[in-house]
Amino acid sequence: MLLLSTKMLNTGLTRNWQQVSSANYFAPMMKRATQDPHLAQAMKILRMKAGKSLKEIEPSVGVTRQAVSRWENESASFPEDKVPLYLRAIGKTQADLDKEILGLSEDGPSYTGPGAYSDFAALLKQQVIDESMSPWVEPGEWVWYQQGLHPRRSEGCVVELVDGTLLVRLYLREKDGYVFLQRINPESVEQYLHSDVKAIHKVKVRGN
Q: Which residue ranges form the domains of the chain, and what is each CATH number?
């Protein structure tokens, strides 16, 4: 009886030691990832690859979409305890995150904000106020566009209508007197009479 109890005790100690060892082994990896300067950018890229909007992942992460947007755009730090919830919500793993961070690190500076363009002063900007183009660009984010530069097919654009309305869309084509544009959320193709469109400008930068 004593031998059996000792064996059971040893087995329990071994199991507990393995659990603690595993936790101690992976904890530094998670900590390094959540402290990486590329974390926010990598997380946003993964979400966009997964085709998930902030509205979709809001319940799973347990905070408002505005809070998640601040994390992604680095106006607030990404809480370490929310990283696993975020990854689960977009169907990605820690390995996916590590790979994305590594790719961003190897590519060197990958910031695509205004400072990345020497001619930024010549760009105009428009704030997105709805979810019509989510997750390509989220509500509250900005697009910077070059006036007079026409987009190619499937590129982002700002469409200036004759009545003064500005639309952020993906450019498709022009045919039979119509301009065809792609809306992402919900996915649909919109068409406008060419006579109602004053100009179409290519988006050069998007984000905060």
A: 2-106 (1.10.260.40), 117-207 (2.10.109.10)
